[in-house]
């Protein structure tokens, strides 16, 4: 089932639609063509477990990437510049000296074209050469598929010039449906985190960021990249959310700077922050296709 409805109108008169995807007795997800945004996700019992706005304006004026697709490059490039094949590219500094989530006009601010193919909502966007300082025209296609208790995002991209591509989805989850996430139990099968401007990971052993054994979040503030993560999950209120991806790392952010602090947790699969200035695993060549997926699945007891 995929149903379309009007969600809002931009200041320049463009219509924004909301698409509801779901199966009988399963989850229902609402996706906006503004930013390919996950606006809501309802479990079969009626709980909405992701943060979202009921109108368009907060998405347009907001700075928290609430549910949006992040690209071309998720997380930070610091300082806000990169060198590709000997050529320096200057980016916009939006977080101190860093470029965060590709700058002020990232993919979460774009209006995506949409179509329906079988049971998938397909979104398409072409990012022009030089967009946000990034080289190459980037042709991006997203496929969003809802299963009985799962939500899957498939991401494809082609470029005309070498460019970093490191997309992620940025929903905030609250399995209670409201309130703080302090009682949520986090499990993250990773032994290391990375610090932004250092190439070498830091071990997690015996630190407060070590969640290899499931632990309640409590007051721990996390905004870190977990390296080569095997599995990650968060549990509360008889529900467990599992996050899996073809991407190697996972940014975990406990939402401490949201308008309502700690009202949601973000679990963002990605290449590690600042990768373009180190290993360049995120560098896409014109002869290559960026092809990655993210899946969220739910268990209830």
Automatic annotation (TrEMBL):
| GO BP term, pick one | galactose catabolic process via UDP-galactose, Leloir pathway
| Entry-linked InterPro entries | Aldose_1/G6P_1-epimerase, Gal_mutarotase_sf_dom, Galactose_mutarotase-like, GH-type_carb-bd
The UniProt GO MF terms for this protein read: aldose 1-epimerase activity; carbohydrate binding
For the keyword Isomerase, the answer is yes
Q: Which UniProt keywords apply?
A: Carbohydrate metabolism, Isomerase
Q: Which family, according to the similarity comment?
A: Belongs to the aldose epimerase family.
PANTHER family given in the database record: ALDOSE-1-EPIMERASE (PTHR10091), GALACTOSE MUTAROTASE (PTHR10091:SF0)
Q: What is this protein called?
A: Aldose 1-epimerase
Q: Which organism is it from?
A: Litorimonas cladophorae
